[in-house]
Amino acid sequence: MITADDERFLRRAIALAAHAVTVGDAPYGSLLVGPDGAVLAEAHNTVRRDMDISAHPELKLARWAARELDPEAAARTTMYTSCQPCGMCTGGIVRSGLGRVVFALSTEQLVELNPESGAWPVVPQDGPALFEEARSPIDAYYGAD
């Protein structure tokens, strides 16, 4: 359920996305908000500027949260973002332990507005293979018998 506070923070995420455009970056913005309503961190997309395919604001904030917040604090935060996080960012959000994500545009809506946003090719993957060899470093690290 989207609250009035959620809408206020979503408007801030949209403003960050609009600002990104004014400085030549892609139109995506995000912020992290603590349980008390304090803004903890903000970011916008800098993929082109940084020449870094991972410089999405959602992933930057997930990485920030993983470094700067203990797991209990991270679980009480909400990420507000101008667009629904992509698969890469979703993975980072899950691993960072954030408690909630609220987004303005869905992926489907973004693709309707910009069809190239959904034009990623499917990369073939083959495997699994070499189980016994591959398990050795896993067992060594995690201490499996």
TrEMBL record:
SUPFAM superfamilies: Cytidine deaminase-like. Residues 4-121 form the CMP/dCMP-type deaminase domain. Signal peptide: none annotated. InterPro entries: CMP_dCMP_dom, Cytidine_deaminase-like. It comes from the Bacteria. This is tRNA(Arg) A34 adenosine deaminase TadA. It comes from Kitasatospora paracochleata.
